[in-house]
Amino acid sequence: LAAIQEPDRLSNSDEIDALTLKLEQSGTSIDKPAISSQILGRWRLVHSTNAETSSPIQRKAFSTTSVPIYQDIFLRDVETKENIPTSSKNNDDNASFMSFLSPKEEKPLELVVSQVVKFGPEFELRVDALGSSSKYPLAELTSRQTTGKILGLNVLGVSLVGDEAEVRDPDGRIDFVFDEGVFDLKSQNLQLPYPVPFRNPLFRDWVKGWIDITYLSDRVRISRGNKGTTFVLVKEEEEERN
Known about the structure:
By secondary structure, the chain is mainly beta. The protein has helices spanning about 15-25, 55-60, 240; strands at about 40-50, 70-75, 110-120, 125-130, 175-185, 190-195, 210-215, 220-225, 230-235.
């Protein structure tokens, strides 16, 4: 799976589906994947199933490999909003989430799941979502109530809700709510807001979601999302991220 070289990241491949299922059923995944230290860091998307319930924008973005797509999962200081440094080598056990803080320095942290689309070395779109896991619960993240259909149409994607969204493994799920997005033009030192009102109360339920992490190793992650899509991602090394 880590060696996937598809011209189209978005596909329904029997071979990839078989490999994915084999790993999920292998019993070799890191335990409690959503709260394992190995979940932290940058993950590069290499494959996504072509689910009709995913949003048209998502299908378009995922359909080509010419633009790298990443998912950054990290911890952030609640008060200062400063990111907590993580290392791919910090993988001893779940307790290592807090290994960089002494007991006296321990402070409130929040989980962030950031989607990054890199259009070039100096130009990227970054959309941050506030995350919630069994280790870092977020009170706001109550269960999603609406599927997201607008007048019966799939505009923003169609989410599982109710019994279909039941949590099978609390330590394997990360809930999230999209919160802020920016186009970052680094060479110009300019940031432009992403034109979606994530924080508007009228839309807040529509921008909630979750991923169930069904397999995790130090190299590969398999996740199944609230819109019925399966994602295969590979871990980026420190030097690749910098």
